[in-house]
Amino acid sequence: MKPKPTRRSFLEAGSLLLGGLTLPDLFRARSRAAEAGRPVRHTSVILIWLQGGPSHMDTYDLKPAAPLEYRGDVSPIQTAVEGMDICELLPRHAQVADRFNLIRSISHGFANHAGGAGRFLSGYNPLKPLDPLAQFPCLGPVVSKMLQGKRDPDMPVYVADSRNVYGGGAAALGSAYLPFVVGADPNAASFKVNNLALAGDLRTRLDDRSALLRAIDGLRRDVDHQDNIASLDQFNQQAINLLTGEKAVRAFDINQEDQATRDRYGRHKWGQRALLARRLVEAGVSFVTMQMQNPSIPGGIGNWDIHAVNGHLYDDNRARLPVFDNAIAALVEDLYQRGLDEQVMLVVAGEFGRTPRINPQKGTTSKVIQPGRDHYPGAMSVLVSGGGMRTGQVIGSTNDKGEHPQDRPLDPNNLLATIYTHLGIDYREMVPDLSGRPVPLIPDGEPIQELL
Questions:
Q1: Sign of torsion over alpha carbons 66, 69, 75, 79
Q2: How far is 450 from 106, CA to CA, in rounded Å?
Q3: What is the mean pLDDT of each run of 10 residues along the chain (452 residues)?
Q4: What values do phi and psi take at 322, rounded to 5?
Q5: Is residue 378 a contact partner of residue 107, using CB atoms and an 8 Å limit?
Q6: CA distances from 12 to 8, 19, 63, 73, 430 (A)
Q7: What is the rounded (10 degree) CA torsion for 106, 108, 143, 53?
Q8: Residues 161/254, Cβ–Cβ less than 8 Å
Q9: Helix (H) or strand (E) holding 303
């Protein structure tokens, strides 16, 4: 005899596609939005997250006139934009510099990874800076909550390559707003999205499709009728359509791209994640986070946390930056060539910068003294592209040693307000904190006017 279905088993089945968001919840929200006649503006954001904290001094804010212990061993090169010089290891960036902006004057006050990411992505000072999960709702889950029911019903709102950025998370919003996760390496020959395997199977087996509908209907009769499943009846068919539909399956099928395009991005994890991000926003996903760490290339280390004990700064730059250059430049080019630059805003950032002054130490593996840079939230650089903005700008500056903002000092909240505005989200809307008290999406800050 089969065990009686439980509320837990139903909710687990209902959350198959969206990493915790039950399908009835999703469609109920969409229905209410449609009934209210809310306008839908199809904009989206790709966040390329550089976990560990990239060095502004070795990428986008070089200081060639500074002493050697600050400037390191890389030199600046000219770009397509006069006055925007960047690292010589980013030549493809240089070619497309007229299609992005560099913000050089963002800073905050949290120098550990979890606290820095939580501060950057939520807009709030973390209550527990060492907690790997944010105490305030962060960017991706906020977008997921605010845009549920307002976007393409055949695609998830929020997709990421992991459940949480270290230091980020949904906090009091709950797991319903965590992303649909694509954790596998898109460059692998065996790449597939496991959560969509059901779709490929059921599409060719209509008897199973009908059986599944009957099974869910049976489950519905056995669950209690609390608010979050009260509208289940009218959404059952939509739930099955999403699970068995073609659109999401096609969007995640990176093998549909021609080989020349895949090669242009780079046949490595970073390049193919960037390409997958473009496919997803083009198909209707509103927010995509792809982390660029563990690039699976010889000579590269795990993330951007290049203390001297972790690796040799100069060697790591020479291994890491060309891979990064390829992926980001190809993504920028592709967004513009495909006419997505008005719709899609690309943001490339980590939780903070690195110390302007190099701190040599003995490497844990090498056992010799080698150069490295430590955590540094006092200055960082962020790349932004698309979003219908005027590009080819350098916004803000740091002093002659890259130690602190000098012109146009900005806060992560300014960037968050800009992103929310692009997505049509009022950054003054309220969400609950961990105590249940309503707080605004960000406590302060206005959009960066140069990007609007």
A1: negative
A2: 14
A3: 37 36 45 50 93 97 97 97 97 98 98 98 96 95 92 87 93 89 89 61 45 46 38 42 69 94 95 97 96 72 88 93 96 98 98 98 95 98 97 98 98 98 97 92 97 93
A4: -60, -35
A5: yes
A6: 6, 10, 53, 53, 28
A7: 80
A8: no
A9: none
Task: List the beta strands (DSSP E) in 5-72.
Answer: 44-49
Q: How far apart are CA 159 and CA 283, in angstroms?
A: 12
Q: Scanning the structure block, which residue is given the tokens 């939580």? A: 118
Task: Identify the pLDDT of residue 364.
Answer: 93
pLDDT in the model for residue 155 = 86
List residues bridging with 291 in a β-sheet: 49
Task: Please say whether the beta carbons of 89 and 138 come within 8 A.
Answer: no
Terminal CA-CA length for the chain:
62
Helical H segments across 257-411, by residue range: 259-265, 269-283, 313-337
Beta 76-77 vs 344-349: how paired, if at all? unpaired
Q: Do you know the residue count of the chain? A: 452
What is residue 171's predicted lDDT score, i.e. its pLDDT?
Answer: 95
Identity at 175, one-letter amino acid code: S
Decide: 165 and 138 in contact? Cβ < 8 Å: yes
| CA-wise closest residue to 320 among 269, 385, 364 | 269
Q: Is the pTM higher than 0.90?
A: no
Q: How far is CA 336 from the centre of its chain?
A: 19
CA distance 103 to 108: 14
Q: What is the pLDDT of residue 245?
A: 64
Question: Residue 20 and residue 11: Cα distance in Å, rounded?
Answer: 8
What does the H/E/C string look like for 197-228?
A: HHHHHHCCCHHHHHHHHHHHHHHHHHCCCCHH
Tell me the C-alpha distance between 26 and 228, whole Å: 10
The tokens describing 394, both together, are: 């350098």
Rounded Cα gap, residues 323 and 173, in angstroms: 36
